[in-house]
């Protein structure tokens, strides 16, 4: 096989390129629409099942344009049916290419609600928050758009998906071109609207100000974690030296451009970020802003110096914010207890191989 004929992932082809490939392989241009519909609308992940295409064309496409290129190397499923996949997209220079994707079924299945799918955007994370397992192995590379799309295809194979959070491994704004291209497919072909997709970032102000006028089709969540600049420098190393007020001002600009409120993610670390003083100062920063605070009790990570707060401490924090006019919700993480923390399954797999 020549270099020109080397396999290339299906979703690395633009629709026009895919139409040309179908013609090259003996099919018709419209067959590109047929096979995209098979995958994106019907969820077919095997060319052999696409009986609307000739056997010869299916065989050639399987060789030239594989639908899935990653491999599932681990899976954890909890009692509430939350499933975490570890998908390996191939090592680069000896570094793991594995990322995590989490399928979280709704607790209201009787009401016909599907699952929330959490996807990753980078192999590893350069932000390296000390309480998060995602950055423990550093950043290996950005994910390509087709690799992000593949996570949606694999997640949907586990059950219907009605919402998505781009909150897995990686910092989305540092791989924005590929994230944006992947979300175009998610919106246009998988049918998840802008209010059904949330992108979580640590809030690079310049990047937020650049993309906000484009009115991206997603909800914005910013990982704040503390109202104190000095402490945030420690908890979010990639943002060291960037004042919290600059992040908040960029978020205000986002709201002005898009009309969509920002959610502030706030990890509760026992005795570190869950105090009355933290609640008071956080409320001072946010109470005149249209926003919601999402309180996230810490998920234990191996060898971590941090601890999870008690349910009473979480309730006190939520009440303290509410009393000061700030809307706050609590997100108790679901999933397998031993692998609940983001990046933990990846770290354990890498440790097992070493």
Describe this structure in words.
The protein is built from eleven helices and twelve strands. It has 354 residues and is of the alpha/beta class. The protein has two domains: 7-64, Orthogonal Bundle (DNA polymerase, domain 1), CATH 1.10.150; 71-353, Aldolase class I (TIM Barrel), CATH 3.20.20. The strands form two sheets. It has a ten-stranded mixed sheet with strand order 1-2-3-4-7-8-9-10-11-12, with helices on both faces. Strands 5-6 form a two-stranded antiparallel ribbon. The relative contact order is 0.11. The mean pLDDT is 91.
Task: Annotate the secondary structure layout.
Layout: H1 15-24, H2 31-40, H3 55-64, E1 71-77, E2 83-88, E3 98-104, E4 115-118, E5 122-124, E6 139-142, H4 145-157, E7 161-166, H5 176-188, E8 197-201, H6 205-211, E9 219-223, H7 229-235, H8 244-258, E10 262-268, H9 276-286, E11 291-297, H10 311-323, E12 328-330, H11 344-353
Parallel strand pairs: 4-7, 7-8, 8-9, 9-10, 10-11, 11-12
Antiparallel strand pairs: 1-2, 2-3, 3-4, 5-6
| Beta-strand proportion | 15-25%
| Number of individual domains | 2
Q: What about the largest sheet?
A: 10 strands, mixed
Distance between the termini: 35 Å
Cross-sheet strand order for the largest sheet: 1-2-3-4-7-8-9-10-11-12
Given the C-alpha coordinates, what overall shape results?
elongated
By secondary-structure content and strand pairing, the structural class works out as alpha/beta
């Amino acid at each position: 096989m020549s270099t020109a004929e080397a396999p290339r992932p299906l979703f690395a082809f633009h629709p026009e390129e895919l139409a040309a490939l179908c013609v090259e392989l003996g099919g018709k241009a419209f067959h590109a629409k047929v096979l995209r519909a098979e995958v994106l609308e019907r969820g077919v992940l095997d060319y052999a099942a696409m009986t609307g295409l000739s056997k010869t064309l299916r065989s050639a496409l399987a060789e030239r344009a594989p639908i899935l290129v990653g491999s599932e190397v681990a899976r954890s499923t909890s009692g509430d049916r939350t499933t975490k996949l570890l998908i390996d997209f191939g090592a680069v220079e000896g570094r793991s290419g594995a990322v995590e994707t989490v399928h979280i079924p709704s607790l209201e299945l009787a009401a016909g609600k599907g699952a929330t799918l959490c996807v990753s955007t980078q192999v590893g994370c350069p932000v390296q928050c000390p309480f998060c397992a995602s950055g423990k192995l550093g950043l290996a590379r950005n994910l390509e758009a087709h690799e992000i799309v593949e996570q949606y295809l694999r997640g949907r194979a586990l059950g219907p998906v009605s919402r998505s959070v781009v909150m897995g491994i990686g910092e989305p704004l540092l791989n924005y071109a590929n994230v944006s291209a992947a979300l175009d497919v998610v919106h246009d072909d998988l049918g998840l609207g802008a209010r059904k997709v949330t992108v979580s970032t640590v809030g690079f102000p310049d990047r937020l100000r650049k993309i906000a006028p484009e009115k991206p089709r997603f909800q914005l969540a910013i990982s704040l974690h503390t109202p104190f600049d000095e402490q945030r420098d420690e908890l979010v190393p990639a943002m060291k030296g960037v004042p919290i007020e600059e992040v908040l001002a960029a978020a205000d600009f986002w709201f002005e451009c898009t009309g969509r409120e920002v959610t502030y993610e706030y990890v509760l670390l026992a005795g570190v970020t869950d105090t009355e003083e933290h609640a008071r100062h956080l409320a001072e920063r946010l109470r005149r802003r249209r926003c919601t605070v999402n309180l996230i009790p810490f998920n234990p990570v191996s060898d971590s110096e941090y601890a999870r707060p008690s349910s009473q401490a979480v309730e006190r924090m939520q009440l303290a914010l509410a009393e000061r006019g700030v809307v706050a919700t609590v997100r108790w993480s679901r999933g397998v207890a031993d692998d609940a923390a983001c990046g933990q399954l990846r770290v354990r797999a890498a440790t097992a191989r070493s």
